[in-house]
Design goal:
The complex is a heterodimer of chains A (873) and B (110). Chain A is α+β, with helices and mostly antiparallel strands. Chain A folds into four domains: 3-72, no CATH class; 144-323, no CATH class; 340-517 and 740-872, no CATH class; 528-704, no CATH class. Chain A contains 28 helices and 23 strands. In chain A, the strands form three sheets. A six-stranded mixed beta barrel of chain A has the order 4-5-10-7-9-8. In chain A, a hairpin with a 5-residue loop joins β4 and β5 (184-191). In chain A, α18 packs antiparallel against α24 and α18 (481-517) crosses α26 (791-820). The longest helix of chain A is centred in the last third of the chain and has 44 residues, at 733-776. In chain B, a hairpin with a 5-residue loop joins β2 (63-69) and β3 (75-81). Chain B starts with a helix and ends with a helix. Chain B is built from four helices and three strands. In chain B, strands 1-3-2 form a three-stranded antiparallel β-sheet. The radius of gyration of chain B is 15 Å and the shape is globular. Classes of the chains: A alpha+beta (873), B alpha+beta (110). The interface between A and B is medium-sized, with 27 and 21 residues.
């Protein structure tokens, strides 16, 4: 077939379909009138002639259909026709359209937004060259991954392993930058020289790290693009200039590309020095995280078994420090996503369920409407439209509506996404940002079309009769209503079931939240301000000078109006976790691996326990007398006292702390949640920060009212004392506690919200079915009333029907929940996934909502006016 | 069997219409009546097959339609053979002759 006419014909079909349609009408009309003319000439009356001519023609609709189908682009043509028809219908019933489109748009929008997040975290690659060859590494104890690797173990692994093209280590830190611009506190990352070559990132100005940068006394620093702009105005001359990092002069050697993010928000990168500092010689001092690039052709499994072999060798070589220790290697991206994965999957599953419920409602609406259109469809079938065509047309209608809903959903997704970006736990910095890219848009289109098919297919088949005459026989009364109602009842049962699952899920999370807020923190977070202050070791070289600085600072802060008490600690509870050391009583041998007691180690200023509200149970806290010259003292938590000195008075006894000389126990304080709200780590030892010569402290300030009010006065004091010292990130303790729960809080809120939407949709669905049901039986109800049925009897009829649907849904939903709650198990805290109270509450709540949805239809049934109804019959 | 006969008939209809139009431009009813007349009523061309065939052939570019006045002063769409249509008629005629002679050979074989 020649191509040109084909294209022309198809084009015409698309562009001129109205014109062609009109011309065809005209042609058939002219044909008809000529046949009539012939017959009239043959002596027939005009009426008879017209009737016979029509019969000969055999149905204009059929002829037209066949002509349409014989043309090129026939399928397109009829598709365009269907589309126009569907559009017209949508505009003709704006209320119906709005309800359907809005319902689905909400569902599709939520799914799109969430999918964009899932896409960013789990599907798209992290923005590094050949990301699948990147692996993350940490330490294991007894096979369980638990944090940082010791520097010496890292060197051994790096030197011995052959599966890596490069293996780098890093550890994040926070520092104060001074010189050339206002002092600021920024993120710093200590990194081995090869971090950037492993990640394959080149500096945009200057040079990257070289092996010699790691040598002792090196002072190179790489700066972020943002810091380059901020402090140097993006000038190329920044290379070679000096920045002061916690007072240490460092030379800028290069600028990292804009937008580079890896694991932490970092502005400075400093080489891990290969010095001879005492901590570097400790094989059981663990501070480094690993990232490596697999050698070409090497697999993660190979690297793992190689690392296992190396760690076994290290265990034999250094049994004191390395027993039970190993390396854990994993895909870098998986490690960066971390715990966010399960939350994301849970929310994705939930949003999908909400869309399912929304689809259920829309399908119900379409079913109801399709019943009303039965006579129209029957008529068209009788006029010769094939059933296939009608079904296709109805499907076009529903898919068009869901596509419109999809477009609206993308708009909503943009809004949702902003919310999600702020709320969702998205894993570590460096993962791609969620965007509405092509993958997401394809997802939306696919979901929209699937939703269109799902909601449209049953109504389409129901609306198009197999036997048109059956339809035409019945008059205004629509048959098949019963079957349609049964279908809709099934939909409602499913909706109720899904809602129950969601309600129970969010109920369990709410229980967890209340359990967590009820956790006794061991200190009082109210009216407490916390923030960090760091001074330069070079400006305050001796422990005496350092403690003098902090002592003066506290004195001046306590002199501020509205301040009750001020103190400091090396690591703030909740905000600054980990750092646990092995502790054992003096005179006993150092416990072997897995035997000793580990305690969180903190350095406190005088008055710390009083400020925090941690009760001192025995002896005293850290006090002014604990100066660098005085004897070394330690305050232990109750858990340590019970663990090391069961049944004996610990005061006056001595403790060994890892590699340190013994400390004298001077006090016992109550346990507190130091490691996080959900943590189970009450063992803690507190030493004197003055004796340790600490340069960086968390200030803790107990105030009389709003703690944030004293933040600025404290800044002023610091500026007067030392212009290079910054009071960084002052926050209220309550905020810090909330932040610790924020991930869970978000998931709970989101799930609760989704469950609420699901419940609302289900109630609407139930109401719709019952209202329709009452409408269908209105004549019957009229008769019942006429022959003496009481209103109560009718009420029972309707409510009974509604409750039967709800009941079936509840049974199904509770059964599903028994299995489904495993999904949230990881997120629960001291809450049984089968918590009977939650289940009961969800069932009662949904039952009540279901009952409420029955009320209006039942009321209508009770107030049917028999006279009016019977007159209509 | 049934299928092949329909195919032949379908092909024949195109050929018959083209042949009819090769004599003079005509409207739909004219074509239909003319074919009936020539075949002594053996072939009755129903509108249900006539119009689809006409529209299809018009799209192929074998015939051209234009609106004009019928003998009874009715507005009607007249179809006219194009050069491409004439060529097509030749092909169809050849194909038909070939088919008839081939079938003849089969039938005469003893």
């Amino acid at each position: 077939m020649p191509l040109l006419p084909l294209i022309k014909g198809t084009f015409q079909a698309l562009t001129r379909s109205d014109e062609l349609e009109r011309e065809m009408d005209e042609e058939l009309e002219s044909y008809l009138s000529m046949v009539v003319d012939e017959k009239v000439q043959g002596g027939m009356s005009a009426d008879d002639a017209r009737r016979e001519a029509l019969m000969e023609l055999g149905g204009t609709e059929q002829v037209k259909t066949e002509v349409r189908q014989s043309r090129h682009g026939a399928t397109m043509d009829s598709f365009v026709w269907d589309l126009r028809h569907a559009l017209r219908l949508m505009l003709k019933t704006p209320g119906f359209t709005a309800v359907v489109v809005l319902t689905l748009a909400l569902g599709i929008g939520a799914n799109t937004a969430l999918f964009s997040t899932v896409n960013a975290a789990l599907i798209r690659d992290i923005p590094f060259d050949e990301p699948h060859r990147l692996v993350a590494g940490e330490k294991t104890t007894d096979g369980v991954p638990n944090g940082s690797v010791s520097r010496l173990d890292y060197f051994d692994l790096r030197d011995a392993a052959t599966s890596f093209e490069g293996l780098a280590a890093y550890v994040p830190h926070r520092v104060t930058v001074t010189g050339e611009a206002a002092p600021e506190v920024v993120g710093l990352m200590f990194a081995t020289w090869n971090l950037f070559s492993v990640l394959r990132v080149d500096p945009v100005a200057g040079r990257g790290f070289l092996p010699e940068d790691e040598l002792e006394g090196g002072s190179s620093v790489l700066i972020s693009h943002a810091l380059w702009q901020r402090r140097f105005g993006g000038a190329p001359g920044a290379i070679g200039r000096t920045v002061f990092v916690d007072g240490e002069p460092r030379t800028v050697i290069g600028v990292v590309p804009a937008g580079f993010r890896f694991m932490n928000d970092t502005d400075l990168w400093v080489p891990v020095e290969r010095g001879d500092f005492f901590i570097d010689r400790q094989r059981d001092s663990h501070s480094l995280r690993l990232v490596g690039r697999l050698a070409p052709g090497a697999t993660l499994a190979q690297a793992r078994s190689e690392a296992d072999a190396i760690s076994q060798r290290l265990e034999q070589q250094y049994p004191d420090s390395n027993s039970g220790k190993g390396f854990f290697l994993d895909d870098l991206q998986r490690q960066m996503v971390g715990d966010a994965r399960s939350s994301l999957m849970l929310l994705m599953a939930t949003t999908a369920m909400v869309l399912l419920i929304a689809c259920g409602n829309v399908a119900g609406l379409l079913l109801a409407r399709s019943q009303g259109r039965l006579p129209e469809m029957a008529m068209r079938t009788a006029l010769g439209a094939p059933r296939k065509r009608l079904i296709r047309q109805l499907m076009t209608e529903s898919i068009l509506m869901t596509l419109v809903a999809g477009i609206a959903g993308v708009g909503l997704a943009v809004l949702f996404q902003r919310l999600l970006l702020q709320l969702l736990p998205l894993g570590k910095p460096g993962l791609p940002e969620p965007t509405l890219d092509s993958t997401v848009l394809i997802f939306t289109v696919v979901v929209s079309v699937l939703a269109g098919l799902a909601v449209g297919v049953v109504p389409a088949f129901r609306a198009t009769p197999r036997q048109p005459w059956e339809q035409l026989k019945t008059t205004s009364r629509v048959s098949g209503g019963r079957r349609s109602t049964r279908m809709r009842s099934l939909l409602v049962v499913t909706q109720v079931a899904v809602s129950v699952v969601l309600l129970i899920g969010s109920g369990l999370l709410i229980r967890t939240m209340t359990q967590l807020t009820a956790v006794d923190l061991g200190f009082d977070p109210e009216r407490l301000l916390a923030g960090t202050v760091g001074i330069r070791g070079s400006v305050y070289p001796t422990p005496d000078e350092r403690s003098a600085f902090f002592a003066t600072l506290m004195e001046r802060i306590e002199a501020l109006p509205g301040v009750e008490r001020a103190s400091g600690i090396s690591k703030l509870p909740i905000a600054s976790p980990s750092m646990d050391w092995l502790v054992w009583p003096e005179g006993q041998p150092k416990p072997g691996y897995g035997e000793g007691l580990y305690a969180l180690t903190r350095f406190a200023m005088p008055g710390y326990f009083e400020t925090m509200g941690i009760p001192i149970l025995e002896g005293r806290g850290i006090e002014d007398i604990d100066t660098p010259d005085a004897g070394r003292v330690v305050v232990i938590s109750e858990a340590v006292a019970e663990g090391l000195f069961p049944g004996r008075d610990p005061i006056g006894r001595h403790l060994n702390l890892d590699w340190h000389d013994p400390y004298e126990v001077v006090g016992v304080v109550a346990n507190a949640q130091l490691d996080g709200v959900r943590a189970d780590f009450p063992e803690a030892v507190y030493m004197s920060s003055a004796q340790a010569g600490a340069t960086s402290m968390w200030l803790t300030v107990r105030t009389e009212s709003d703690p944030l009010l004293v933040a600025d006065p404290i800044r002023d004091i610091l500026r007067e004392m030392d212009a290079d010292v910054v009071f960084s990130r002052p926050r209220s303790m309550t905020t810090i506690v909330e932040n610790d729960l924020s991930g869970l809080h978000t998931v709970t809120t989101a799930l609760g919200l989704l469950a609420g939407i699901a419940l609302l949709l289900t109630a609407i669905g139930l109401y719709g079915v019952l209202a329709y049901h009452v409408n269908q039986r209105i004549g019957e109800f009229g008769i019942r009333i006429a022959i003496g049925a009481s209103a109560g009897k009718l009420l029972t009829l309707v409510v009974d029907r509604g409750l039967r649907m709800v009941g079936a849904g509840l049974v199904l939903g509770v059964t599903l929940s028994l299995f489904g709650t495993r999904l949230v198990q990881d997120l629960l805290f001291e809450t049984d996934p089968l918590d009977p109270l939650t289940y009961a509450a969800a069932v009662v709540f949904l039952g009540a909502v279901g009952l409420a949805a029955c009320v209006l239809p039942a009321w209508r049934a009770m107030h049917v006016n028999p006279v009016e109804v019977l007159r209509k019959e | 069997m049934v299928e092949s006969r329909q195919n032949i008939l379908k092909g024949t209809l195109d050929m018959l219409i083209l042949k009819t139009l090769s004599l003079a431009p005509m409207h739909g009813l004219g074509i239909s009546r003319r074919i009936e007349q020539i075949t002594d009523g053996v072939f009755q061309v129903k509108p249900g097959s006539l119009f689809p065939a006409l529209h299809r052939m018009e799209q192929e570019g074998w015939i051209e339609g234009s609106w004009g006045e019928s003998e009874n002063n009715r507005r009607a769409k007249f179809y006219r053979l194009t050069p491409a249509g004439a060529a097509r008629l030749g092909e169809e005629r050849e194909g038909w002759t070939h088919l008839v002679s081939t079938i003849g050979l089969v039938l005469e074989a003893s």
